[in-house]
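Job type: complex structure
Entries:
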Amino acid sequence: MPKIVAVTGNEAVAEALRQVNPDVCAAYPITPQTDIMQRFSSFAANGKVKTEMILVESEHSAMSACVGASAAGGRVITATSSQGLALMWEILWIASGDRLPIVMPLVNRALSAPINIHGDHSDGMGARDCGWIQLWSENAQEAYDNTIQAFRIAEHLDIRLPAMVCMDGFIISHSITRMEYLEDEKVKSFVGEFKTLNPLLDIEKPVSYGPLILTDYYMEYRKAHEHVMSKVPGVVKQVADEFEKMTGRKYGLFETYRLDDAEVGIVVLNSAAGTTKDVIDEYRAKGIKAGLLKPRLFRPFPYAEVGDALKHLKAVCVLDRADAFGGSFGPLFMDIASSLYIQDKKPLMFNRIYGLGGRDYMPDQAEHVLNELVETAKTGKVQSVKEYIGVRE
Amino acid sequence: MKQKGWKELTPGAVVTEPGSSKQFKTGSWRAFKPRWIEENCIHCLFCWVYCPDMAITVKDGKRGEFNFDYCKGCGICALECPGKKGNKAIVMEEEGN
Ligand code: SF4
Ligand code: SF4
């Protein structure tokens, strides 16, 4: 029987990592992720996992050690947040370019300066184009479930790419909610034995990682990377189907909420989706046909499927918990706009930036956006394409 | 050699053929060429140790000729060479002279 528990998001992710029992973990503490690795290193110290813990001097070194251990042939994890992810930047590209299936929980936090430790998506968005898979999670249950599934997706022999599992710092990582843990045995058999691919430690078959690839082949390797990314959604769905059979919990490339017959819709990532769904219920009760789309697989972004799910709406608001300075719009908005660009018929669209640096996203903000959506649908006019909401003038 | 298309590549650019660097002749990089002056050579084999491209051949424990297929002309051997009585046994000369 699955165990019902009351835990924080960090505790849930640490538990998933314990159940997977990876070979190597190289990590450096950073708020709000620290708690995951603190718990995980206790598991290692107390013999609950056989993982070799490598305590390094920075996140740059953490990711570098992960690259080495993964190339050597191990199942490898780390976790980070914010500036930690920024410091890994250079090595993130090595991990993906070398096609190493490292799994990394990313507890989303704002980037400095000004220094801020709270939930915000600037860190994950900054790493969206580095060739990693990104799964985003609304709550502790999703973060736990996505962590387990991430191993299967990343390690799939058709894929072999590193994967980040994102959840909101503090709002999810440090809040206690009720959720379900699977039995250890079930997790173990679901993720299965780690399969190596060209491991460095196979001395019978010597290999080299990281050769110099210049003008003659670099572009072919990039095309191959783009191609392997295109196979990820299929694997994500296949793994989700198996996961549903085991748990009854359904996952896809994204979640839709009351969207099919909706006239207006909100697109939002992670924890703010929960609040938004509540407000949508209130508006539905008032007879307003509102719905929601919450991306789960953010990289690679399932453009065609997302566009298909949104194209029937009259108006869409994309809520971004990060800005893309100088790019005009928030990062999620730009992807949703691209998804709809390829559709013949498309809704009116606007972008609202909310919740930066952990600023609370309250139901009145969702109401404000829904009112604006209803007005836009009625008048056929977008008042203003991009605005910050919940900010003092 | 026909170059491979993107579908034929090993994931992650991993090189699975051991010793394949032999196929890559770095000799064409050379702008300066080392010349061995045998009478100044004490056969200490410093040049053999320091050469990054294994371009110094050794026979029966004695220093042999350069392998110019791989010598890229970096000059490390000439720098490290102690020679005899202050006279270097390796000197670097401009290519094509
Ligand atoms: S010049 Fe450089 S590459 Fe050539 S033999 Fe000397 S050390 Fe080796
Ligand atoms: S380093 Fe100079 S002296 Fe020593 S073996 Fe080489 S050429 Fe001869």
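Summary: Chain A has a mean pLDDT of 98. Chain A touches chain B at residues 97-100, 160, 197-198, 205-211, 213, 216-217, 220-221, 223-224, 227-228 (CB under 8 Å).
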